[in-house]
Amino acid sequence: MLLAQLTEVNGAPGQEGEVRNLIREQIEPFVDEIKTDALGNLIAIKNPRAIGPKVMLAAHMDEVALMIVGIKNNGMLEFRPIGGIDPRVLVAKTVIVGKKKINGVIGAKPIHLQRPDEREKALSIQELYIDMGVKDKEEAKRLVSLGEIAYFTTKYEEFGEGKVKAKALDDRVGCALAIRLLQEDLSFPLIAAFTVQEEVGLRGAGVATYQIKPDLALILEGTTASDVPGTDEHKHATSLGKGPAITFMDRAVITHPPLVKELFALANEKNIPVQARRNTAGGTDAGQIQLTESGTKVAVIAVPCRYIHSPASVMSKKDYDGAYELIKHYLRCLEEREDFQ
Amino acid sequence: MDVKHFLRNLSESSGVSGYEQNITEQISTACTWADDMRRDKLGNLIMLKRGEGTKPKKKIMLAAHMDEIGLIITKVEKGGFLRFGTIGGFDQRVLLGQEVIVHGKTPSLGIIGAKPPHVQAHGEQNKAVKLEDLFIDLGYDTKEDAEKLVRIGDLVTLKREVIDLQSSLLAGKAFDDRAGVAAIFECFQILSTLHHEVDVYGVATVQEEVGLRGAVTSTYGIVPDLGIAIDVSFGDQPDLRESETIKLGNGPGIAIGPHVHPKVYDRMVKTAKEWNIKYSLDPSPSPGGTDAYAIQVVQAGVATILLSVPLRYMHTSIETIDYDDVKSTGKLMAMFIAGLNNEFVEGLTCF
Which residues of chain A have pLDDT under 70? Predict the structure, then answer.
């Protein structure tokens, strides 16, 4: 299964190789050209010489992860997050470390030996370490080098009522959508950019867009869902099962209003449930894509995901399929429009 | 028999205190050395391997608890989310983001969540998420849907496949104290190739994590002359003082303290030295917390000792042990038992 494969490979910002290779393999039969650039963006072009609007789909390949920054004398590894990770989700988890893919665990002090007040305090990233089961620093150094990456080991699983549990749904779900959409038979130039380094400041997207020069760009994302106990309903950024979320605005972008309007209208016409993203926090590649050259019209279509940037995020297959349907219909509409400018 | 493989399966199976049935079945099926096997009313599994001495034979009991800590559903909320309490001691900080198995009508995957960081108040991220603010996401959309599967009182266990670390280290859940059960198996395996006079009762006890309860009733049923509890002890890890821990890979900890009979202790240490088995001394000024404490005061009292497999990150889903320590714990017990005679056992009441 596409999404299972995509979430079970690893790709920290700047080290997206495994993801890139998998995507390249998946899209090769459906596109006319594939290229990569100096940062590692993977750009796939369908119908390069066709007339009509040049439409860009963008999804980032990278995921939040942990970088090894130190090896202690006892062989334990010190790490820092690449991208935003709440250290509280790391305690007592398994990881896979470095190029050699060594198993490790993130340990914690046993409850029996804690003072009661310790349990009230979150463990900071400096207090956490990875244990590979080595005897000392020398043994650790034979297995791992500084700068290598530790990843969560979560397996893709479907559960509950049409839900999926996996790591890195942000943004492999966007990659999966782009891969599926590239299989559509369309008459205009469709370009998918699988971007790098989104999690450390939207670094790859601008570079990719500069090469593509699209007329419009759809950014495919996995976004925060906060429809969980303890969160007031008015603070639910998105909710699972209510369809893909469309962004009006976030920290980095005000999406192109006519485009957003069209998407909502189309969803309504085709009876596809959609929701507005009801929060302006965070940012996506749209922020860079809109600012490239003399500007690009952008919209963001995102699959709501609970517990993003943690070992196990959760999404609804309904929302994933809804996002696919909506974008597919939108692309078909574009094909029928002669006035596109 | 590959006891390590057996331990792997045992670790990945579910058996919260009071609900050890499934574990009991696995242990009794795998145990090929017992001449007799029975269960008492609390569910303790008692495996007897007869000795070759002349009657009345002395009885030695080996006890390791098979229960694990777990969670229990206390409420099904709007949206199908589950609230829970704990069975046994959990640090609330090790639960966030953890995958679990909810043992409802059918075992189902759940994920322990909390409200996301961006809706938390300033400063909240420096605090641990409180147990009462955590919930289990079962992937259902409504309370009604969730209730078709789950009821209040259903149990929840951590979901974790055992992983191999470097050398012979393993990480997983419930090695506390299924590693002890594996040590009994390792002991039986060696004993089956040796001559021993005493009857050996291997006991997989229940409900240790909620107050050493199974050890009480099983000891009463056996009335052993000597009891060895096998449990886990804090392994060396960077955030603990050296004096609080014993080292992984250095063999079992031999406890010394009020719950350990001095003569048994001396003989255990002597046996280890004689057979060149590595061990650590494990001073225990507060003797509670393991089955040895319960066994010691049953009926007219029992001479007891505690052996411990060193274990890091106790009561988390990534408890880490060195399997070599399980093997050497089994070997030490086997050699100790093979060397026992009536005279020594009778001397245990003479101070």
Answer: 338-341
